[in-house]
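Supplementary Methods S3. Input chains for the assembly prediction are listed below.
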Amino acid sequence: MIEFNNVSFKYEDGSEILSELNLKIRDGEVVLLCGESGCGKSTIARLINALIPHYYRGELEGQVLINGLDTQKAQLYEISEQVASVFQNPKTQFYNVDSTEEMVFGLENRGVPREEMKKRLEATVKKLGMEDLMNRNLFAMSGGEKQKVACACADTSNAPIIVLDEPSSNLDIYSIKELAQIIGQWKKEGKTVVVAEHRLYYMLPLTDRVIYMSNGKISLECTPDELIALGKERIARMGLRSTDIFDIVKEETANVKRVNFNPEIAKAGKPGTEPEAVEDGDSDGADDNVLRIRDFSYTYKGDKKPTLTIGGLTLPKQSVICIVGDNGAGKSTFARTLCGLDKRADGILEYGGERLKRKGRLKKTFMVMQDVALQLFTDEVGDELESCIDDPDEGSQERIRELLEKLNLSDKAERHPQSLSGGEKQRVAIGSAVIAERDIIVFDEPTSGLDYRHMTSVAGLVRSLKESGKTIFIITHDPELIAMCCDELVQIENGKVIEAGRMTHDVYDKWLRSTTAHKEKKKVENEKWYAMDGTDL
Amino acid sequence: MNKEAPRKRRFHLDPRIKVLILVLIATVEMFSLNIWVMTAIGLIPVFLYLTDHRVSGAIKYSIVFGLSVLAHIFRADIQLNMVLNMVIVLLGGFVLKLFPAFATGEYILKSTSVSEMMSAFSAIGLNRKMLIPLSVMFRFFPTIRREHAAIHDAAMMRGVSIGRKRFWKNPGQAFEYRIIPLMITVANIGNDLSAAALSRGLDNPARHTTYTDVKIGITDVVTLICIIAVVTAVFVFTTLM
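Predicted structure tokens for the full assembly:
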């Protein structure tokens, strides 16, 4: 039983995030906390696992009771036996380097004897299907795998309450499905599960109660069905993401005739590409409207076979190209190859009559990274943009000023880039691409962990970049972003392009279905393998 | 996979033995003994790399170390201009004296898991207050490497990597460009990491147990004896001759 009695909380910087909150969560209930960024849902999660007040400082009033323990009086480790947590960022929640050691870390801290640890570990591994994730280097795992390990850690702890703070932010669609299965399993066992989340669609079927928050208060409490009944528009106005990821592509794009730009895929007879729509790709004429990717390949150090092989891919210029595919399919490798960032990568990009090798691409492209803080170097936003101009002249200050205005950053010109919010940092990075006159801009997961409003604004930015003549590549798992701004969908699986073409309703739905089917098949093969091996750990 | 020994490695040293080897190497290097003893010491990391299946690492290290041995041997025979000569002698001496210890340290970091290290050092009674920072350090090396690679990419895109014009206009600033984002993200990661570790009872005062079992086995003893024997033999042989 979780009880919030008149809880108010202010962070140390003075921002009030919760006010006079009352909430009771019964044992065995699955509760979904939703609302726009900054509404206080993560704060609730932190109050439940007692990181507030023990780790994140601030002014706390009222009382939070976890199975009768007052979180202000109890020690953090006492609460940790009641509450297990799964966090948003798979990169920063592991203490060990080895996955198995991580799964027993909580037990080691509690002083559980080795035999007992083994027993619990075995039970968890069996229950969650973790056989292939044991004894692995966490640094070499995909986001989905890491999050599964995080769930396993929560499971071995045997805590009756599990709190998940935006667990799906960095996951592909299949991994989200697996996450949903794990939560379903916990529900069946009668655990109390509290999930703070932007993505609603996968949680709604599991949820007993939806709590919608705004401005630090609960402004709606209802069942999932009641939420869905509010209708798509109302839900969007509330700043929430879609309740269903199918059927969100607008119909007008569905009527556009589909032209397959990629003869190679059609020739290979991959299902779903209509050969009659094939446009002949080897016309070497000066077709200024396309960019061609030729013989992209990437071979890992020590490997004989390349991990990425893309023989030929023709895409329209000045469009938004979404690159999809599961975690670990080769999307990031593709992006790094495209940007000329990796010396081990081979291939040529033909862009407007130019044949660009690696170094040429380095000057033509720009990547807006997922962790955008890593690419902001200077101590002022204005300087940041200035440092991107090759040969500054009198006109450049003027250009910077105009650009800042366009990006809605005029009042932030003198701020330290690292002190800005995530969205603002992203806009500064985009600004440096624009001012450096790069024609191709690659986004790496620009909307992971963003609420509806922020996602829409990213989509708007992408569209305006396109209108100004840029070609945009977006690596993403976000179905809603794709539905909102994608022109061309390219699906990569196992380092190969398996599908590429104009984005339509059908293409979108087919991708969604295939992306889970693909992994499903692989998993069955893996299970067979383990069955043959005769191991149970 | 066997339940008792989840880590299937043919040759696997106990972390305590690894550290002992490191101490041994560092101690012998302190006394400037003759070149043959130094070479014998220098060969230890090659052996360790090979047992860890890191052939390319072993080769690279052998080449660098071998060159500095050659430079040391022929240093009197070749007359170059003075500055160049000095650079070569200094560099060679540096490699000769420090590389074996560095390489062994690197081998230890790469081949030892955090939990193994914790088990081994709590077994010899090291205080937990010292163990936690040690294990965090272990955890942070790969993190820093990864973040640094991402920053390197970002710098390449901006044209501030070594070998580009803009870098040499103001190398000091280019260095700052790399360090600031790295420090900020490492600090953030550290923050999140501590929160995650605390939410899993790291502050529990109960006596912590360990999952990984560490034992000093026959391999450990034999390896250590062999190393000591070879180095001593080389020393005795070369000084008595």
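Confidence is low (pLDDT under 50) at residues 252-285, 533-537 of chain A. Chain A touches chain B through 71 residues (CB under 8 Å).
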